[in-house]
Every structure is written in C-alpha cells, then in structure tokens.
Amino acid sequence: MNNLASLVESIDGLFIKRSHPDRVVLSYQEKKLLEQYISTEINCYDCDSCNSCGSGDCNSCCEVVDD
Amino acid sequence: MVRKIFIQWDSTNDCNLRCSHCYHNREGEEHSSHKQGLNAMSLEDVILMINDLNETAKRWSMKPRFQISGGEPLMRKDLYSILEYTKNLKMEVRILTNGTLITEEKARDFYELGIRRLQISLDGNKKRHNLIRGQPFAYDLAIQGIKNCAINNIEVTVSMTALKSNIQDFEDVIINSIKAGAKYVGTKSYVPNPLLGVNDPEFLDCEDLYLLYKKTRDLEQKYSKKINVLQTEVLWHLMQWDTKIKKEAREKDLFLSGCGAGFSGLSVLSDGTVYPCRRLPLPIGNIKEGFANLMLNNPILKDLRDFEKMRAKMDNCQHIPYCRGCRAIAYATTGDYMAKDPMCYKELVTPKDIQPRVIRR
Ligand code: SF4
Ligand code: SF4
To answer: Hey, which of A48, A49, A55, A60 would you mutate to test ligand 2's pocket, going by the most ligand atoms within 8 Å of its Cβ?
Structure first.
C-alpha cells in the first residue's frame, strides 16, 4: 500500500494538534471531564453489545469489577 | 482494563439495502437516496480523525476504538486502506454491516487486516428480515456473511432492532445465529420516527421492553451453551443486582456507565458532521474541530454530562450515574434530549426480577 504510506507521511506533518495544543499537561477542562468518571477497573468482557445500543462503546455493557 | 473511548464513523451513505428503520431515511434528500454525495470525508481526513482519536485516548489514559458503519461500510472503496492504517496503530476496530457483501474472500481479508469482531444485523425470520430490509436476497446473504466470518475466526455479534412487528421472532434469530456460527446475539431498541414519537407503530413502550427483557432472560437460559444472549442495553441494569461500585457512583455522583452520549465517544457522519450518538441527530460540529475540543467544550455534550439537570427531569432518579436511559429515544419522543426515556420500566420491576448480571464468555 505505497499510496497509503506516502499519504500518511505527507499528513504526518500536519498531525493534529488541533485537539490538544498543549500535549503534556492536561488542561483544566480535561481534568474536569476526567474527574467525572468514577475511577475503577472496568472489566469489559468484549461482548460487542456496546454496538448494540447503536452508539458504540458506551461501557454500559461492562461488568465493573466489584469486590 | 482501562476505559474505552470511541468514534463511530458512517464511512459512506451508499448502501445496497433499503431498510425501513434506517436513520438515513430521516435525514434529508442526500441521505435518503442511500447514495454518497461528493462531500464524503477524504482518506486524508479519515486518517487525521483516526490519529486524533488515538492521541486523545492516549492523553486521557483510555483505549481507542474505531467503529465503522454506514450506509454499508463494504461499499466504501478505500476501506482496506483505512483498515491497514488502524492495524498499524494496533487500534481496535469494529465493523457494523448488513453482512450481505461479506464473501469468504472478504472475511479472510478482514481477518488479515485485524478485524476480530464484527456486527451483522438480522431483523427477524427470513420473510420479515427481507421485508424490513427491502431486498429478497438480504437474509440469505447476511447468513452467509456470518458463516464466512465464523470460519475465518471473526466473532460475529448478531444484532436485532426490536420492533413491535418483529419481537416474536427473537428466538428464530437466536436459532439461526447459532446455526450460522455467531458468538453473540442481542436486541437493540428502536428509536421511533421523531415525527410520530411514541405513536410510531413500531415503538416498544416500557411494558413491551420489560416483557422483552424477561423473555430474553428465559432464552438466555435455554441457549446458554450455544450462544451468548446479551443483556446489556442501558435499561438492563434495572433488572440487575445493585453492586458496591454502583453505590459508590451514586454516593460520589460520578459517571460509571449507562448512555454513552456525552461521555464515551462521538458519532461522525460520512461528511464529518458530528452527533453525540448516531441515534441522536443533533449536529454539534465537524470532526475537523477536533475530537477532544468537541468532547470538552460542546454545550450539548456538557448538558449530557450534567447530572443535576438530568435529575431534575427524571424525578431525582438515583440511577443517573449508570443509566440515564437512551437520550436518543428521549429526544425522538419528546424533542428534549434531557427528558426521561419513555422506555424506562422501573415502575414495573418486582423484587424477583432483580438477578445478577449474566456474563458468559
Ligand atoms: S429515570 Fe432515567 S436514570 Fe432512572 S432508571 Fe429511568 S431511565 Fe434510568
Ligand atoms: S443515546 Fe441511546 S443509543 Fe446513544 S449511547 Fe445513549 S443509550 Fe446508546
């Protein structure tokens, strides 16, 4: 797939910083978002049912590890 | 395991079928023709989008997943180039397809290109499936597609959109999924036509859904040795045991699971337009604006993450951190994406309905 290889090379230069201009430190907004997720181990059993709700991977299907 | 974050991408509007429940029937001329116009994302744009997802996931310590749907994804000419790219990134990819174009050779190629799991739709017995899907060949070719995947070590999930007119066929779908070699089978709720809302004759109300889930449990028992019958849509939790982690999520008011809109990823149309979920047709921007930028700053997504606002609409329901119902169905039936999901059957649940979640691998 030489075409693909050269295409990838040519767009590598404009590789998107558009989403995250600051790549090292998380922004305030990012921290705020990530703090809203419960910190736990999610045990996705890969059943693909996330597709079944049409959205994709919503984690709603995941067995969350519960001791 | 880390959380996942996804893009579901409509790779093309082109499709070889004309399904009656397709979202594309509802979204204007170009979509309803089931033909891709000139505005499809270029391969460059697709690769930029994939990189963006990959980088954002890394940055947020999540695992990226790229789900390719359509139209019919097999009608996108550069599909293999895209899969080759995701394979190099070792990105998890799923394809959502009607299955009719998956020849043995295609299934072999998919395996080579890193596809290990794929979703094919069956919407009832043969007669009904063909009627819904608008082509007399749709069923046989979909079954053949499942077989071709199975013999090439690609696990297939069969998904049935549950309609008033087909719920009685679910067992037939299970049996034929087993015969064809599928690994998982489940229903997904139908989003009614917004012009009709709850009066859409195919819409299942809360009682229908409750009965369907109870029936699904029986079928799961009956066929558990042969296939995994899924119990995993958002409203299933109402019939499942409370757990320590759910309690913690309630106490701390944190997102655990449930409707993914606003939390778990974005849906991108073939021209780059972004929706919060493929079934929630609210254009919130273009993917060129950046995955993280949209996730973080879009006011609709912020609303969808605002538990206080949502609670106000749902009589202070305690299940918000891992439910929220389906925002798309709420929107299609009320015009308000924050409203209560009319399929919510929590008033109908009895103590003996509450059972542990069944997980089989
Ligand atoms: S009211 Fe909303 S959050 Fe509560 S159970 Fe029903 S759909 Fe889920
Ligand atoms: S809006 Fe509905 S289909 Fe979309 S993620 Fe939420 S529950 Fe799933």
So the answer is: A55
Collect all residues with Cβ–Cβ distance below 8 Å to B160 and sequence separation of at least 6: B121, B122, B123, B124, B166, B169, B170, B173, B185, B186, B187, B188
H or E segment to which residue A63 belongs = strand A63-64
pTM: 0.90
Going along chain B, which residue ranges are E strands?
4-10, 63-69, 92-97, 117-121, 155-162, 184-189, 228-229, 265-268, 273-275, 285-286
The answer to the question of residue B361 being in a domain is no
* B52 within a domain of the structure (yes/no): yes
Candidate from B320, B322, B326, B334 with most ligand 1 atoms within 8 A of CB, to mutate? B320
Task: Answer yes or no: is B243 within a domain.
Answer: yes
User: pLDDT tens across B317-358, in order?
Assistant: 999 998 999 999 999 999 999 999 999 999 999 999 998 776
The interface predicted TM-score of the complex, written ipTM, equals 0.83
Q: How many domains is chain B partitioned into structurally?
A: 1
- Domain hosting residue B273, numbered range: 4-348
CATH number of residue B228's parent domain: 3.20.20.70
